[in-house]
Amino acid sequence: MAAKPGTASTTYSPVDPTHKTKPSIFTDSDWVRPDSRGFHQCRPAFFRTGAVNSASGSAYAEFGNTKVIVSVFGPRESKKAMMYSDIGRLNCNISYTTFATPVRGQGSDNKEYSSMLHKALEGAIILESFPKTTVDVFALVLESGGSDLPVVISCASLALADAGIMMYDLVTSVSVSCLGKNLLIDPILEEESCQDGSLMIACMPSRYEVTQLTVTGELSAPNLSEAMQLCLDACAKLAQIMRSCLKEAASAAAEE
Amino acid sequence: MGLPNASEDLSSEMEVDAFRRLFPLRYFERHLTESIRPDARPLRKARDTTIALGAVASADGSALAKIGSTTMLAAIKMEVMTPSLESPDEGCIAIDFHMPPICSPIVRPGRPAEAAPVLSKQLSDTITSSGMINLKELSLVSGKAAWMAYLDIYCLDADGALFDAALLSAVAAFSHLKIPVVSLDYDGKIVIMSEEQKEENSETKPVNKEKRKLTLSTIPFSLTCILHKSYILADPTAEEESIMETLVTVVLDSSGQLVSLYKPGGSVLVYTSAVQDCVALTRQRVKELQNILDDAISGMEID
Amino acid sequence: MEIDRADGRTPNQLRPLSCSRNILHRAHGSASWSQGDTKVLAAVYGPKAGTKKNENPEKACIEVIWKPKTGQIGKPEREFEMILKRTLQSICILTVNPNTTTSIIVQVVHDDGALLPCAINAACAALVDAGIPMKHLAVAICCCVAETGYVILDPTKLEEQKMKAFAYLVFPNSILSVLPEVSSPAKGEPVEHGIITSITHGAMSVDDYFLCLERGRAASAKLSDFLRRSLQSQFSGNSSKAG
């Protein structure tokens, strides 16, 4: 039976009533993270380029349960309404699948994340190398497991590299959540939902330059500098993983 | 159209890629006369097909299907609804097909692809008329609560034969679906039962102890073919679809019933013999796909 | 094979047909087509200059707009639009007017079963009325398969709902060629036996489908006779509006 439009709003997803006491756990002094990681330990990262054949470049990234695909199209003709431009344009869009979040969503575009992705990447791309044209970076979050935006940013820079778009360096991004006194790197969804503050850095590790830094909520000054250092170190490590992924893909292509 | 003679003369001295772009139809016809396709397939052979079950942990059932590079991700989320008065002990299935901008250079954000609503309709028609799912199995409390299964199919990579891949991912997601154990609380709402509750046999009783998996009676599988002159090409790529536009999609279920024979226009007319050929090709393909799905399911059970 | 149809028709009997052309003054071509109580109005505007985005400018572009009797356009209507568009594309000669768009607006007046075939017939008559170059006419028919395996033609809405499966089939009109003997394409089968469009709903056996095909072809001959006759009579009636 096909869906009747009226019925969609009347459904609800069943919840587990016994599962509401979790925030208290986090305030304890000696708790462990739900996935038993250390506070300063990232989730294992997995990258693969060439996930979408019909795109000029693409990448798939998986950090625990966070799974994203990014496709890059172009450089191609800009929209007709656009003014003439000496430098290239970057167009970013992030959308979620309806089943990405624990409660079924609408699967719509995320405007805020889209503009943040744009700002994080813009500084790293050599826009002068494709004048008058547009490069489109489209991301789809298949499953949201926390730290979605940092994963999308790293994955997008890998997809741009796969598409052969000129960049100064890869952009890698990591976030840190502050819970009470503790700093947690690469938080999962549960941890993000009860954080006091968070910090996200997108940077170009080889040049040691930050392309974007976002702080939200409550973070003390010493915590802030510690969190920044944590992120920058993690970004450098992430860049190594991404670089080796690109090298693997290149050597596989050379063998063929 | 236009310059057959010119292309004849040019083709001897032109590079293959340029010839492919400038005279795509002639390029393909050259291959067809040799009974081979540009991707080295015989005319009536489908591309490699894989199914991965349980691709998305946040859904109740999910599957990733790949036919060549066409990739579809299907996931089912179960929600509770009040059944309609006409059918108090039946659940409901809502099927939606999405083409996000990542899947193809044609789709842009904010402007949904034209094909998406048509494919959604075609998929839900096919799944409904195949009778694969008994909607009574989705009932929880007669007249009070029933499952609404939201099936969302995302095209991750569009490279032809979208319907075939979408249908395959949909049936695979249904065969992977695990319905959560729920009980009725005091307010008449359906709630998930936690592990402890199940063990200690408390006063709340699960309402769906048995109905954890759907029995899929007859599973529909499909094959799309291109008809060009008297050639039949199974499982076309996007490039082939754009050049030769007569497509026939045959859907057969596992018991050999014809669920759908879909041919929306196209410049080539189909005669009885071609229909028979397409049905015969689909019969073979159904067996292949059934094996691939069975392998995927048995692979899941070992883990 | 005995069945009773509510309106006392035999299984192969069609409902009374009627077709009138040139009913709208502003449109370049228009026609209404009814089969029993199902009635559809089609209007053709064009060819207008330019094609829409993502269309091949080397060919004429055909655009179909479906107007339901009431309410908003949804997924089923979008599917109808796509099927109509693809069907009409295959019967029109698109290379005569490259880089133009022809719009066909289909207004449902009343739906009493076999709606899509009725709309295809109406659109086809309207295209003739507008003088759009066509390879041949098309006739559409709906065949229903009941549980016990018998086939009825041109069902009403009630019959459509009761039946386990139905097929919409579109065949080309038999060609009265002015040229001596156009070469027959496939193994001796006449052109009018080729399927332009086939849409099925509900599960049926493959043999049932072939039975539908056979019955549909037989009935399409009658339909195409009717279409040709009504077009010819109206052309001789008001020859003022040609092209």
Automatic annotation (TrEMBL), chain A:
Protein family per UniProt: Belongs to the RNase PH family.
Compartment(s) of residence: Cytoplasm; Nucleus
Start and end residues of each Exoribonuclease phosphorolytic domain: 41-165, 169-230
GO biological process annotation, one example: poly(A)-dependent snoRNA 3'-end processing
SUPFAM superfamilies: Ribonuclease PH domain 2-like, Ribosomal protein S5 domain 2-like
InterPro entries reported in the protein's UniProt record: ExoRNase_PH_dom1 (IPR001247), ExoRNase_PH_dom2 (IPR015847), ExoRNase_PH_dom2_sf (IPR036345), PNPase/RNase_PH_dom_sf (IPR027408), Ribosomal_Su5_D2-typ_SF (IPR020568), RNase_PH (IPR050080)
Pfam families: RNase_PH, RNase_PH_C
Keywords linked to the UniProt accession: Cytoplasm, Exosome, Nucleus, RNA-binding, rRNA processing
Protein name: Exosome complex component RRP41-like
GO cellular component: cytoplasmic exosome (RNase complex); nuclear exosome (RNase complex); nucleolus
Region (Disordered): 1-28
MF (Gene Ontology): RNA binding
Principal cellular location given in the protein's record: cytoplasm
Keyword RNA-binding: yes
TrEMBL record, chain B:
Name of a matching Pfam family: RNase_PH_C
GO cellular component terms, semicolon-separated: cytoplasmic exosome (RNase complex); nuclear exosome (RNase complex); nucleolus
Family matches, as InterPro entries: ExoRNase_PH_dom1, ExoRNase_PH_dom2, ExoRNase_PH_dom2_sf, Exosome_comp_Rrp42_subfam, PNPase/RNase_PH_dom_sf, Ribosomal_Su5_D2-typ_SF, Rrp43
Main localisation: cytoplasm
Top-level taxon: Eukaryota
Exoribonuclease phosphorolytic domain location: 46-180, 219-281
Keywords: Cytoplasm, Exosome, Nucleus, RNA-binding, rRNA processing
Single GO biological process annotation from the record: exonucleolytic trimming to generate mature 3'-end of 5.8S rRNA from tricistronic rRNA transcript (SSU-rRNA, 5.8S rRNA, LSU-rRNA)
Keyword Repressor set for record: no
Gene3D superfamilies: GHMP Kinase, N-terminal domain
Molecular function (Gene Ontology), one example: mRNA 3'-UTR AU-rich region binding
UniProt feature coiled coil, ranges: none
Subcellular location: Cytoplasm; Nucleus, Nucleolus
Stated family: Belongs to the RNase PH family.
Protein name stated in the entry: Ribosomal RNA-processing protein 43
From TrEMBL, chain C:
Species per Swiss-Prot/TrEMBL record: Acer saccharum (Sugar maple)
GO molecular function, one term: exonuclease activity
A Gene Ontology biological process term: U4 snRNA 3'-end processing
Subcellular location: Nucleus, Nucleolus
Main location: nucleus
Protein name: Exosome complex exonuclease RRP46 homolog
Similarity annotation: Belongs to the RNase PH family.
Record-annotated Exoribonuclease phosphorolytic domain positions: 13-133
Keywords: Exonuclease, Exosome, Hydrolase, Nuclease, Nucleus, RNA-binding, rRNA processing
Pfam families hit by this protein: RNase_PH
CC terms in the record's Gene Ontology section: cytoplasmic exosome (RNase complex); nuclear exosome (RNase complex); nucleolus
InterPro entries in the cross-refs: ExoRNase_PH_dom1, ExoRNase_PH_dom2_sf, PNPase/RNase_PH_dom_sf, Ribosomal_Su5_D2-typ_SF, RNase_PH
